[in-house]
Amino acid sequence: MDTVLWVIAWVLAAVFLGGGLAKVVQPREKLVAMGLAWAEDFSPGMIRLIGVLEVLAAIGLVLPALLDIAPVFVPLAAVGLVLVMAGAIVVHVRRKEMPQVAANVVLLALAAVVAWGRFGPYAF
């Protein structure tokens, strides 16, 4: 199970690092043009904040455990992603964007598994 948690953490880190960096460096109009229609409803500052949180969570999912420095940040980062995905689900439900809701539910579930495993029976 430890290997499964590592794989899930790396997959989540890759997804959120890429998505977070895009939100940090791309202007809102370009994000909307790329298919992130929800960005129309948020200020550029809020989009960047979401991006920064996603990048920090991506780093927190793997780096503390790899360096063996404060590995408790791994499950905390996973909990942070659960919260971000819960917010994303609310936004997409309100916008009636069901395919995005499904993707967010999957990401939330994966982050919850990492949080459960690293807080619980497979802690570092």
How would you describe the overall organization of this protein?
It is a multi-pass membrane protein. It holds the Pfam family DoxX_2. It is found in: Membrane. It comes from Actinokineospora guangxiensis. Keywords: Membrane, Transmembrane, Transmembrane helix. With 124 residues, the chain is mainly α. The protein has one domain. It is built from five helices and no strands. Helix 1 runs antiparallel to helix 3, helix 1 packs across helix 5 (98-119) and helix 4 (73-94) packs antiparallel against helix 5 (98-119). The two termini are 13 Å apart.
Taking all Cα atoms into account, the compactness measure Rg is: 15 Å
Overall morphology: globular
The computed structural class is mainly alpha
> Can you give the mean pLDDT?
97
Query: Sheet bearing the most strands, described?
Result: none
Number of domains: 1
What is the strand tally? 0
What multimeric state do the chains show?
Answer: single chain
Stretches where pLDDT is under 50 for at least 5 consecutive residues are: none
In whole angstroms, the N-to-C terminal distance is 13 Å
Number of helices: 5
**Element-level helix/strand string:** HHHHH
Beta fraction of the residues?
under 5%
Helix content: over 70%
Keywords: Membrane, Transmembrane, Transmembrane helix
Subcellular location: Membrane
Transmembrane segments: 6-25, 46-67, 73-94, 101-119
Main location: membrane
